[in-house]
């Protein structure tokens, strides 16, 4: 079989795909399996590929904006043989027919060492910074893999990118064959570069790691006459089992060579590979967790396609096809984004602990959404979208339910900030809430469905969440939600503070955005309204203004909207230093030398999301 390898500018911008014999596939940025979405010079549909009779036929599509180069020449129709390549933008595509075959003929290792999962978890990385860039891709690996096959590709690529000395990596499985004997099957593999010889993992090493249920390292003598792989001087390899019922008999296999020939016959010690083994253990546990969740989803698909209690209750009481059918509804949408991941990545030397912390932080949002009768509609990277008002209208107003859930999320993070050792300490969230008309319901196929909501109100909630960074507040409301808080919510439950009149990027209609605040005495220490401040971050995690400060700010805002900028500037400076919300208006006024622009209408336009 023949494969196509795509390699972008960065190590992680890579995949290896099997070319189907005699079938035409489309290469581009949005073409499913053959997508190179990292390169903006590649069009959504750039070229048609067809592997037939030992040659890959490449035909540039009319929709392609940039040329294809082969042999240094711009071409629109050409053929490529194994070992040859073509280039689009900054991405190189190589056709290869190198193969992998598991071998029992490898020599006995000069050194063998086994490592338990508990031992690897207790190790501290000797150079944690070198792992951060690859670690940052873990959420993308989890959320971006839409199938097991894509997940395998991403994990193997993650190993090659994260282990500097690795030449090749594979995901393998020991399972019964048609003959009834257990055989080693390769689920996916890749190597850094094409080579004259095939890749031959050690069957002995794979079986030993799976039988012992722990990582096993083999080191061959650099001076051994018998090569590890025919034509390749690969002198070490390790295998890490992927435990769990959903990954029975699976393992991650990594092989490479030591630094140089000056080592002579002295093998590299196992200490030199402990960082790599620990990193691979994280990848194995990630794969195990994903597979377990997917297996559970498959087993319960006929009874529990949706996990939100409110959806399950509606399905149990009425015809599911009627209840879940997409329809218009008045909804409140909450869009929440997790912040602090990159900062915590730099500080952490334990990847498993960091992964648990991120999962816990995201879980805070989903738990409070569900407890308040909402539906978790989608995950987008480190962001969560929830909504209220569908499938059945509840007794509680949708705006109030969304606000209650949001304040509970804020309160839990605030409590965690006070505890130095809490898993949530150091994380923050920006939240946007909007209320309006949308379409909600079941979208998908018979085999796979999800509940979601779409419409302008969803886009607005997302824009509000993004604007929390600029306005320096944790929670923003649209006008409809803010009006409900002001009219219906007692101050002992929630308050609102008008912040500015803005025109978000991509929207034509301006709106007044407001901050959602808890009661003025919530979590306030003895002095004023200053809440807890984290000693590890340059800005406060939370600030709760007093009722008097809310009145002062809104008076300054009224002066700002009316064009009395000197008055607004003076009033804003009467607010406490810790009240970061005032920074946006004071900065805007200062940028314009305290003079309103001509034809001032009170609206601040955002040029970017």
Helix content: 25-40%
Low-confidence stretches: 223-231, 260-267, 523-540
In terms of DSSP E residues, the strand content is 25-35%
What is the number of helical segments per DSSP (H or I, 4+ residues)? 16
- CATH architecture annotation of the largest domain: 2-Layer Sandwich
Number of strands: 25
The largest sheet is: 9 strands, mixed
Please report the first level of CATH classification, the CATH class of the largest domain. Answer: Alpha Beta
Rg: 29 Å
What structural class should be given to the helix and strand makeup?
A: alpha+beta
Annotated CATH topology of the largest domain: Alpha-Beta Plaits
Quote the distance from N terminus to C terminus: 46 Å
The backbone outline, from C-alpha atoms, is globular
Short summary:
With 609 residues, the chain is of the alpha+beta class. Helix content is 32%, strand content 26%. Mean pLDDT is 83; it is low at 223-231, 260-267 and 523-540.
Descriptive overview:
By secondary structure, this protein is an alpha+beta fold. It has three domains: 3-96, Sandwich (Tumour Suppressor Smad4), CATH 2.60.200.20; 111-296, 2-Layer Sandwich (Beta-Lactamase); 309-538, Alpha-Beta Plaits. Helix content is 32%, strand content 26%. It has 16 helices and 25 strands. Strands 17, 18, 19, 20, 21, 22, 23, 24 and 25 form a nine-stranded mixed β-sheet that branches. The protein has a six-stranded antiparallel β-sheet with strand order 2-1-10-9-6-7. It has a six-stranded antiparallel β-sheet with strand order 11-14-15-16-12-13, with helices on both faces. A hairpin with a 2-residue loop joins strand 18 and strand 19. Helix 14 packs antiparallel against helix 15 (565-572). The longest helix is centred in the middle third of the chain and has 26 residues, at 274-299. Mean pLDDT is 83; it is low at 223-231, 260-267 and 523-540.
